[in-house]
Amino acid sequence: MLDRHDMITRRKHIDIPEFYVGSVMAVTINDPNATGRSSRFVGICIQRMNRGLKSNFTLRNVLDYQGMEIMYEMYCPVISSIETLRLEKRLDPHLLYLRDARPEYSTFPMDMEPELIAEDAPVPINDVKVKMIDGDWDKSWERQELKGIDLSGLTELQKRMALKRKTPDYVQYDLMKEYRSTLPEEDQEDIYREIAPHYPALVASQRKFRRRKLAGDA
Amino acid sequence: MSQAEFRKLIPALRIAIRPRSLRMRNIDGPGGRLKRIAGHVTNLIRDERVEHNFPTLSEARNYAERLIAEAIRHGDKHQPTMDLANFYLQEKQLVHKLFKVLVPRYRNSTVSYTKMYKAPTITNRKPAAIDHPKGILELRNNPLPPLEPRPIPTRNWIHNVLLEEARKDFAAEKKMEKELALQNQIEDQQRDQNDEID
């Protein structure tokens, strides 16, 4: 498929590292209006959408007491580098609730150094329970099944409403809902077969980028 | 359209499915809808042939195919599959039938496990009533009398006999022509060799 071909071609020019929602990352883009023609942003990945060539992720940081989020399309040629500074996972599929959490959970220094872990070590899971601000929240996070929020400060009414919105048990038995939301095994194998010839070149270019980066740092 | 999530490897259904699930209005909401589908699946597994409204049966067919595929893949010692069978088969002896009878029947099959037919829609009702399209859903290789007519062997029909003989004659002719051409080629080669020697 054309999209997949373009994604593979882009990955031969730039190293897109392993990252998850909850990882702290640094992205450098080519900005004609910035000093040095490039600008770097460091933030925690709060959302990751896999949409083929339009796949994107959002980084959040708090700079000068102002929270900001930037959404980057992974295969955009404007991006010159993507680094994972801290590789870790969280308990939830997204961290949009950090908007209503206390700022310390979204603040990361812009000159943060990458934290290295062993290559074959499992990805650490950060099970922190984030404390929320006292005022009104943008969304009723207590009603979504999020495990990373500290919900001890809720009122009784809020707790009752949260239970009401719990997903019912029968949803786990809905075979066609599950089937329609995934790609069947045979179609997945077709795609893997399509990109398998490109794997050696991709792995070689990845190794080249990482070697170059280590040499650059040293 | 959101992208597919890959959490579980699911074998492909061997039938064409609607891109969206069928909306079935139910007083108990989505839970009631699933219960109704489970009822149709139960009837199918028990009677091996059911007749009902076509769209509902079409949707129930998908669930039946998925249930059988899961049973074949994981067997009866797998707890989530047992829970699924428990949910969809409302009579407990049908769970045994699924794993002991249907799984061996369809284990080596490469086609769908069910077949769907359109049934006669016109029923003996008042002219003002709506005639919903009816369908028949049945399991393959069931012991009931077949719905489809037995295929008539047409090999002994006169025109087919004549055509077959004509085909044989044509093949024989072609073969003779080829042998003749080959023989001529050999004779030409031999004549050229003799000319060279001379």
UniProtKB/TrEMBL annotation, chain A:
One of its GO terms (molecular function) is structural constituent of ribosome. Gene3D superfamilies: 2.30.30.790. The keyword Transit peptide applies. It holds the Pfam family Ribosomal_L19. GO terms for biological process: translation. GO terms for cellular component: mitochondrial large ribosomal subunit. Its main location: mitochondrion. It is found in: Mitochondrion. Keywords: Mitochondrion, Ribonucleoprotein, Ribosomal protein, Transit peptide. Belongs to the bacterial ribosomal protein bL19 family. This is Large ribosomal subunit protein bL19m. It comes from Hirondellea gigas.
From TrEMBL, chain B:
Gene3D superfamilies: Ribosomal protein L17. One of its GO terms (biological process) is translation. Keywords: Ribonucleoprotein, Ribosomal protein. One of its GO terms (molecular function) is structural constituent of ribosome. It comes from the Eukaryota. Coiled coil: none annotated. InterPro entries: Ribosomal_bL17, Ribosomal_bL17_sf. One of its GO terms (cellular component) is mitochondrial large ribosomal subunit. Belongs to the bacterial ribosomal protein bL17 family. PANTHER family: LARGE RIBOSOMAL SUBUNIT PROTEIN BL17M (PTHR14413:SF16), RIBOSOMAL PROTEIN L17 (PTHR14413). This is Large ribosomal subunit protein bL17m. It comes from Hirondellea gigas. The lineage of its organism: Eukaryota, Metazoa, Ecdysozoa, Arthropoda, Crustacea.
